[in-house]
Amino acid sequence: MDYDKLLDGCCQVGVQLVRCGGEIQRAEDTMRRLLAAYGLEGEVFALPNCVWASVFGPDGRAHTVMRRVPPIATDIDGIERFNALSRHLCADPPADPAELSARCAAELAELRGYPAAARLGGYFLGAFFFALFFSGGPAEAATAGLAGLASGAALLLLERARANSFLATLISAFVLGAAACGLPALGAPINLEVTVAGGLMVLVPGLVFTSFMSDLLTGDMMAGLATFARAVMSAAAIALGTVAAMALFLGQTAGAGGNTTVYPAALYCLFAFVACLGFCPAMNVRGMGAFLCCLGGAVGWSVYLAVVALGGNSFGASLVAAVAVAVYSEAMARIRKCPATSYSTIALFPLVPGLTIYQAMDHGIRGETDLFWDTFFRTFGIAGCIALGLLLVAAVLELRRRWGGRRLLPF
Question: How many CB atoms lie within 10 A of CB 201?
């Protein structure tokens, strides 16, 4: 057996899973299962920017392959495709290990994203309905939608120019802030808070703000710290770009905002559903999966509202809602034979503290230090509660998988 070709094929599958935004644990488990399909027990290791695989041959010689991961861009269809490919390869491993890389390359060649027009429409839709979700009116929603559209256009142009992710996010955030602050600066009666917050949601990079906490809480320190660094860089780029634009209009928008619109609870759930739909083109969610992902967002927010109505605070409500989304995602994953990440990535967007992110930046540029730190820690506290909710469900399922057969658990 050609161990180098086998390891290369395993690494190629792991690379594509990580590149598309799959969990580090999923990539490592997939690579380990592929080796086991050939009767081998090797060592595998994955990080957000590279993967390794190693086995010992019959002669005692160690064979090791390492592959670098290209820049990560959340691609739900890609995760589902390569997850399905790995299942098929594990069930029926090719006699020639070289076919692993060939099958991986063929799957990658068939992977298609949405056209730019669909992605731009999604940016507008997501920002528009998230502004309504944050209790804005039609004027705030329209302004946020246009700001999200302008920011998305800048992001697509910078991606095509191969700008690095920090610079692309920084410039896109500046464009968003300038577009959102423009009308209030001209005297239009627009609530700047919900307008900017709604627009900012199009730049929130998926689950990066919660995934690093999940990695750290599960003991995967290297992956957690690497993802934490990415989260900090993304947050810094969004904050710097938006704050720079807001600072330009600070004196002209001092009186903007204040008024909000209170909607029935059912409408907030509907806004969450449609807002999530706007992120499907950017994250390449296709077919029935798009509807189910957005339905998960509405389910999560309905649970959040129910907990708040019962007297819970934002931290407890975020935790319980995250548990509900995780359970829903795991159920859909088992029904449709897809990774749970395919559903939770989109469904968790309504729980992301977009409004408090804006409030922290606003307090910062106004020199309100105490309010800034209070809002800052509240934002990361909510993110931590979301991560903990996901982790609780994952831990229970792992215990059930390991010990269910021994009848130590009642389910």
Answer: 26
**pLDDT (tens digit, 9 = 90+) per residue, 19-67?**
888 888 888 889 999 999 988 888 998 888 889 999 988 888 888 999 9
- Give the chain's end-to-end CA distance (angstroms, integer): 42
Q: Return the percentage of the chain with pLDDT > 70, whole number.
A: 87
Instruction: Kindly list the strands in the beta sheet with 62-68, ordered across the sheet, starting from the edge strand earlier in the chain.
Output: 43-47, 50-56, 62-68
**pTM to 2 decimal places:** 0.83
- What sign for the dihedral angle of Cα 361, 365, 371, 373? positive
Residue 84 makes CB contacts below 8 A (sequence gap 6+) with: 337, 338
Q: How far apart are CA 176 and CA 169, in angstroms?
A: 10
Calpha distance 65→50 (Å, rounded)? 11
